[in-house]
């Protein structure tokens, strides 16, 4: 069977929908500002529902504002095969992060309609509320409630910088639905997403078959030495907190490299006090972000960093306080779902690689409630969370074609 | 000759004057806030002049507001031997930084009066304007004009955060004197000061014989890499500006240590962008402060740092911009003045050491116009520029006793 025999989506239609959605909250620099539960988010949701209704879908909205657009299957009692992502963006976000996964799901439904294909299981397209967490922390809060990770009351009481709660804002924009969150069974969940990293684009591959989501451990470290004048304090009498911090930063990088290609270790934030040119820093705050898809290796990474921080502090006569502030267990995606993606890619003949998602996605939470996997496409320069975020139309089509194969396989063509 | 035979100052009187002056601008935490050319500075100057007049001195004030209190010598044509420092403080400063040097000069004059000692040269006590530079940058601006380093017009036009100029504020508090700045010849200049570092107090010595002032070279460095997401960006594809900065900080410290006990090298300030927990830093700004008393060694330090910054940037695939923003040449103090201090200390039998000043002082500028040296006393914990700055009364007396010997030697007892 040649690739041309494989059923494909309508790439022009998908791209046109992406561009139409990008008009809502469009920024001058070509990005999108569609923060969760703002009027722009409401307009995006309205347009999505309009398109879904035009495609013959029934709409359900749950108490977290998650929208499910359902294309019925032959068996009304079967659990749905669900595809989706989110429509909210970062404050200065791009046109594809999240949106791509939602509109890919819609394009699959449209293609099934075009071809009159019936499936055993219903097919649903989902839009999860507030994935970014930019307006209401934490991120992925609505898929988190769906998967039983967060309580509904906790989620609805999250507030933005102006003190408005997520629940109030859901009511205000008319998206506080009646359905119990997490009440609907999922036969399988697939999320198409831009990679948000450099691997596919640098290596010239079109599809990432996502097998795992990295586990994460986040730390905060405070190193305390002694503030003193840079002139009159000899080198051997200093307790320089910034020097200790520098050694920690270098060590965190080294430990990450030592734990193989799937380990990531980053110091992203540093604040030094008093931060004056001629004063030896007396106190430094920094953050450490450790990631690995294998929980055992992630633990080893953590222990290595904890031990080395203690050594560095002792060698520099510094006091230290190291606190783990966040832990997210690694998520191995469902093997049958991953196999479905692998098989779809093979049918289509795309250049692909298996990979791990380092970023968090709704799929990482939904994986705890249903068999789940993800499909990545490249983004230019690996750039995301940025108004310049961009993709090639052929990448968009390729990812949607993979999703089409996968959904038809899982939903069961009648 | 036993120590008790050596002429000594009145320690109680000196301490009482220090405590009286400390009331002007006293802070709740026991420090002083007497910023240059404020009403508090005016009151401090007024009190100083009142005391000097009571001690029989004539007062001259120059166009920079520098105050010279003169005890005549036998030879009215001889240049004066001058002792002093400054009365202005940091915003949350201590009771001794600067003040100690001014009131030590006064105590020497008072002691000469008590004992009816006549000198060949006049003895003068000087109070330099705006040494700290906290209100009007740069620091030491008035001694700088005196020594020909800064122009008068430049100095008078310096403005504070509210836009008030140094010249206007001198007029306002009544201290814009008539005398040409730098017009008076100095036979020798001595400045007593707290060390502002930990060496004397940690090593249990009472007097520092200051032989040199460190030269300084200050740099600003910007390292530029690529901002990217800490999750999806593998370690070997990163251009982490903070990792480069960490290696620079460690290298600057190492290079300082490699250049001997008198080298100081410090990164005091760091700002990282975007400074977010899960973003690899794309840009880091930091400052480098290099000091050494030998200009040749200081140059070697600079070259080593410049070369290593380039290597670190290259190894980390970073761009860099390194700019020298300040150079202050090392100041070797006058050998006869240093010898006079050494001889005074020996007479008194104090535990002393030769040392280098790492901080800037009016003496560092005056050394360019007249034979100069300094006398250090310890400060508790090496702490200065801090409301908790403190000294022991016996240290205050010891430093003043040394100054008494030195001034009598240089001024020539008749």
Task: Report on the architecture of this protein.
The structure is a homodimer of 414-residue chains. With 414 residues, chain A is an alpha+beta fold. Chain A is 35% helix and 22% strand. In chain A, helix 1 (11-22) packs across helix 12 (393-411) and helix 10 packs across helix 12. The mean pLDDT of chain A is 96.
Structural class computed from helices and strand pairing of chain A: alpha+beta
CATH class of the largest domain in chain A: Alpha Beta
Indicate the low-confidence ranges of chain A by residue numbers: none
Instruction: Sum up the overall morphology of chain A in one term.
Output: elongated
Largest sheet, strands/sense/barrel of chain A: 9 strands, mixed
Strand content of chain A: 15-25%
- N/C terminus separation of chain A: 21 Å
Order of helices and strands of chain A: HHEEEHEHHHEHEEEHEEEEHEEHEHEH
The CATH H-level superfamily of the largest domain in chain A is: Zn peptidases
CATH architecture of the largest domain in chain A: 3-Layer(aba) Sandwich
Our count of domains of chain A comes out at 2
Oligomer: homodimer
Count of alpha/pi helices of chain A: 12
What share of the residues of chain A lie within helices? 25-40%
């Amino acid at each position: 069977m040649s690739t041309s025999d494989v059923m494909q989506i309508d790439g022009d239609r998908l791209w046109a929908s992406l561009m139409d959605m990008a008009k809502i909250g469009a920024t001058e620099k070509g990005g999108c500002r569609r923060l969760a539960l703002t009027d722009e988010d409401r307009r995006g949701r309205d347009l999505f529902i309009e398109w879904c209704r035009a495609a013959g879908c029934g709409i359900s909205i749950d108490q977290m504002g998650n929208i499910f657009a359902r294309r019925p299957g032959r068996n009304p009692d079967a659990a749905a095969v669900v595809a989706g992502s989110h429509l909210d963006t970062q404050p200065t976000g791009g046109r594809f992060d999240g949106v791509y996964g939602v509109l890919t799901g819609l394009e699959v439904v449209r293609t099934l309609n075009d071809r009159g294909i019936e499936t055993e299981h219903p097919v649903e397209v989902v839009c999860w509320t507030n994935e970014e967490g930019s307006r209401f922390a934490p991120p992925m809060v609505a898929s988190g409630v769906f998967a039983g990770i967060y309580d509904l009351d906790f989620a609805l009481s999250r507030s933005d910088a102006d003190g408005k709660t997520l629940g109030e804002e859901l009511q205000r924009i008319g998206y506080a639905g009646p359905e119990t969150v997490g009440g609907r069974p999922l036969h399988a969940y697939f999320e198409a997403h831009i990679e948000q990293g450099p691997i596919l684009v640098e290596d010239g591959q079109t599809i990432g078959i996502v097998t795992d989501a990295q586990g994460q451990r986040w730390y905060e470290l405070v190193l305390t030495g002694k503030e003193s004048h840079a002139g009159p304090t000899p080198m051997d009498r200093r307790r320089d907190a910034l020097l200790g911090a520098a050694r920690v930063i270098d060590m965190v990088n080294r430990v990450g490299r030592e734990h193989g290609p799937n380990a990531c270790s980053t110091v992203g934030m540093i604040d030094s006090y008093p931060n004056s040119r001629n004063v030896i820093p007396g106190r430094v705050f920094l953050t450490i972000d450790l990631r690995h898809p294998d929980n055992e290796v992630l633990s080893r990474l953590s222990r290595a960093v904890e031990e080395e921080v203690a050594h560095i502090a002792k060698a520099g006569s510094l006091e230290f306080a190291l606190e783990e502030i966040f832990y997210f267990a690694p998520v191995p995606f469902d093997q049958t779902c991953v196999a479905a993606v692998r098989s779809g890619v093979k049918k289509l003949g795309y250049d692909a690689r298996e990979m791990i998602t380092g970023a968090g996605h709704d799929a990482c939470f939904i994986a705890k409630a249903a068999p789940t996997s993800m499909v990545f496409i490249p983004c230019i320069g690996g750039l995301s969370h940025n108004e310049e975020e961009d993709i090639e139309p052929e990448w968009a089509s390729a990812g949607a074609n993979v999703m089409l194969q996968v959904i038809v396989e899982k939903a069961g063509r009648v």
